[in-house]
Design a protein that fits this description.
Helix content: 10-25%
Order of helices and strands: EHEEEE
CATH architecture: Roll
Distance between the termini: 18 Å
CATH superfamily: Hotdog Thioesterase
Number of helices: 1
Shape: elongated
Radius of gyration: 15 Å
CATH class: Alpha Beta
């Protein structure tokens, strides 16, 4: 059974995702991270969600062309209509299997009703 507070996303870094140095564009990394946050928030709330905020995105190491990235998005906390999502992006060399954390950030996602107004989200279950 899948974890309703988590979403995982796999991507491969192709040449059109990279800059002149052959490393992943920061904007592409942010887009994939936002997508993973969207999936985690949607899966948890089962509602329409939009990005309300991205904060403290740290780029630790560059991601090279040809590497695979795994994004792991986890619901950290739930407010009345918002969810705070941690997204960790790991780079993996497909030939050697070497893997390391390359980017991490926090995203706030807002749940919306059918009229696109903020709507309540169920609290996280007690641990």
């Amino acid at each position: 059974m899948s974890n309703p507070t988590e979403a995982r996303l796999l991507e491969i870094v192709f040449p059109d995702h990279t800059n002149h140095l052959g490393t992943l564009f920061g904007g592409q990394a942010l887009a994939w991270m936002d997508k993973a946050a969207f999936l985690a928030a949607s899966r948890y709330s089962r509602q329409i969600v939009v990005t309300g905020r991205s904060e403290q995105v740290d780029f630790h190491v560059p991601v090279r062309k040809g590497q695979m990235v795994e994004l792991i998005a986890t619901v950290l906390s739930v407010g009345r209509t918002s969810m705070k999502i941690d997204v960790a992006m790991y780079a993996e060399d497909l030939l050697s299997g070497a893997r390391e954390l390359c980017t991490r950030g926090t995203f706030t996602m807002i749940a919306l009703d059918a009229n696109y107004k903020p709507t309540p989200v169920q609290p996280l279950p007690a641990a």
